[in-house]
Each structure stands twice: as C-alpha cells, then as structure tokens.
Amino acid sequence: MTYCVGLLLKEGLVMLSDTRTNAGLDNISTYRKMFFFERPGEVVITIMTAGSLSVTQTAMARLQEAIDAPDADETTSILKAPTLLKAASIIGNTLAETRLEIDEKLNAMNQGATASLIVAGQRKGGQMRLFLIYPEGNFIQATEDTPFLQIGEHKYGKPILDRVVKPGTSLADAKKAVLLSMDSTLRSNLSVGMPLDMAVIERDALQVTQRRRIEAGDPQFRAMSEAWSKALRDGFTQIEI
Amino acid sequence: MTYCVGLLLKEGLVMLSDTRTNAGLDNISTYRKMFFFERPGEVVITIMTAGSLSVTQTAMARLQEAIDAPDADETTSILKAPTLLKAASIIGNTLAETRLEIDEKLNAMNQGATASLIVAGQRKGGQMRLFLIYPEGNFIQATEDTPFLQIGEHKYGKPILDRVVKPGTSLADAKKAVLLSMDSTLRSNLSVGMPLDMAVIERDALQVTQRRRIEAGDPQFRAMSEAWSKALRDGFTQIEI
Hints:
The structure is a homodimer.
Chain A: E1 3-8, E2 12-17, E3 20-22, E4 28-30, E5 34-39, E6 43-51, H1 53-68, H2 84-107, E7 115-123, E8 129-133, E9 139-141, E10 148-152, H3 158-164, H4 171-188, E11 196-202, E12 210-214, H5 219-238
Antiparallel strand pairs in A: 1-2, 1-10, 2-11, 3-4, 5-6, 6-7, 7-8, 8-9, 11-12
Helix pairs in contact in A: 1-2, 3-4
C-alpha cells in the first residue's frame, strides 16, 4: 500500500508521499513515489503514485520518454502541453493505457493491476492545479471546498486534514498537517513506511521550491511526532465527559 | 456502513455503536446495532452488529428464539452455554448459517450478504471476554496486547484508540476514548451516524452497569466533540516543525 497526500492552497502546493512498496508481506522494498518534471520559470509538475509498481513505473517512464522524444509536441509531452488540464489528460491517458496493457497480461493469472496518481503543478500564466487521476484515466480536481486529495491508505490520516486544512492555511501549517496525517497513518498501517518525500511548490514560483527526504530516524520528524502524541494525550486528559 | 468498537479493560467492558443503516445513499434509516442478553447475577452478553441488516436482524432474532425455546439447553441458548467461549461458538454458528442462507438467495442476483459481530460478556465464575466474530463464524478475542476490537468503518477512529487505550485505562477514560474515536469517524464518513448507543459492563457485575443512548443534539457529546476539536487545534498550533 501507500499513502500520498497533496494540498492546493492559496500560497502554493504541498505534497507528501511514503516510499513503502510490498508484494506480499515478506517482500518489502523502498521506492520513490514522487516524481518531478520541470522547466523552471515555465512549467512545474509533480506526480505521486499509488498502486501496482509495474504500472506506475512504466507510466512514469513513458511520460519521461515522451518528454525526451525528438518529435515531442504539445499533444505528447506534459512539459509542452499548453495547460495543466491538457497535461493531466496526457498523464491520464498514459496511465490508463499502461494499466490496461499490464492488466491484460495479469488476467491470464486471474490477477489485476491498478494504480492512481496525484498530479500537482502550474504553468506560466496559468493557475496552480491539483488532480487525482483514477486507474481508468479520468480525474478530479481539488477545489476551495476540498483543498486536499489523497491516494492509497487514506482513512487514518483524513481526520486531521478535515479539521485543519483550509485554502488559506499557511505553507508552514500545511507541511505540519500533512506530516501529522502521515504520522497517524504510519502508526496504524504497516504497509505505509518511512522514508518520506515532501515537496512544496510556491505559487507562481514555477519550480519546486522545496524538496526534502525524511529518513526513518529523522530527529525533527520524531520530535514532531512525539510532541503531537503528547498534545493528544494532554488534550484527552483535559476533556471532561 | 457502521462503526462499532468494544474495549476489554481490567475494570470492565465498554461498547459503543452507531445506528445508521443504508441501502444505497437515498435509503437511510436508524437501527439499533447493540443488543443485550442477560440474567443478572449469572450471565451478561452484549452483541454489536455490522453488515447486511437482513443477516444481522435474522441472526439476532434466532439467538433470542433459541433462548426462549422450551427445549433451550446449553448447546442452543447463549444464556445457558457454560462459558462465554461456548456462547461465542453458538453466536458464530448462527451468524454463519444465517449469512449463508441469505447469501445463496442473493447469489441469484449477483449480490452477496456479509456481516460481522462484536460479542462482549461475562459468566459467573468466568473471565470477561470480548470477541470479534467474522462472517464465516470463526472469531478472535481481545487480549492484553490488543484490548480493543472494531467492526465496520474502523480506520478513521483507530489512531486515537492506538494512542490511549491500554488494559489499565479507567472506565471514564475508556468512555471518552470510544466517543472521540466515534467522533472522528462521524466527521469523516457519511455512512456512520447518530444516535449512538453506549454500554458499560463492570467487572464481575454480571449485568449491564450502564447504558446510554446519545441523540444527535446531545449537549454533553457536542461539548466533548468541540473540546476535542479545540484541543487538536491548540496542539496543532503549538507544535513546531
């Protein structure tokens, strides 16, 4: 499993993903699930992936090949697509085709493959966008009413987002919120694991403004996790029923 | 959907269930999901239900019929079963048979029916027990390491239980923990709804010591919910990253 979350805020985009990948409980590995595509000053796109690794890796590789191809144009390269919406369409189509191909192969074994993506980005002159792309290639967007999107093991970490994330939330608070959301998920579900990848794209920066890998023993993350545990316990103690 | 949670603590058993039942999004009703079977001073059993209403209602009715039957004996009546383990077996078998019957009927329509139960209780001279009974009739028990069991929409409300519930938790704190666990679930999932049913069986009381229905506008529950929101927001604000 996986947990990835993206926020669309007035000040920018915030993304956080874990790295645990497993094929059965005795085959656990670490794979990056956050990918960057950018031409600084022109366009920036971040993609986070959940689901079958063979689907997501192949889809990401195909998107990169299409960017690098000598005949790349605005209908094939997500960096040349004139809008983020068109880029999301290309990504959706690539995901759907890849998934269908692999799914057909696996059907012979009575297995299936599925995957979903979160796409965040901005193109010069355009708005910041945050999409959730479904396995079939269709997608939805984050809005003012629902400024966050999640893929993978999303339930454990949703209550804290429901309570604190609004479009006007500051980037500092947003980073805290996604990290605490991940912290709850890590505690409750074995299939989500450290290290984590976090990225911030500030509004109109047109490049990834901050990227950080948070390793298992990261003292800052641990301190935050312990402070949150303490805050929850203290809050719990103070409440009267 | 549904959310039910049961705790097995040194001081007693604590149960909480919601009442929302839905068949599709436009057919929502309120049904009690917590059932009591007791002979005060001798045996007390509480059952909470999740899943297909036709399965759980029929299974509960059959358990009651078996108790009331003139030829009820220790192999058919859960109140006559010599141990809680044997009572859990009767309940498991009744659930499995009922589910199978209904499932076969629904198979013709390419549909299926499933249900699971939490059973809590104590018999004179025996230990307090807390079981989770699966649709197939097999079951697991709560232990010192895992003093709580959940059925239905369990993920949103698990983080708070993971953090605060230990076997030595007081009954007052336990009631608070299950109510806050429910509060998180109510906020994040539409298929779980008020009113709530809460019950406490104190150790060796051999009867339900406390039962409470919490209605939608309950001022005490609302105050607790708001105090918890405030505690979370305050805790969130104080944490530095």
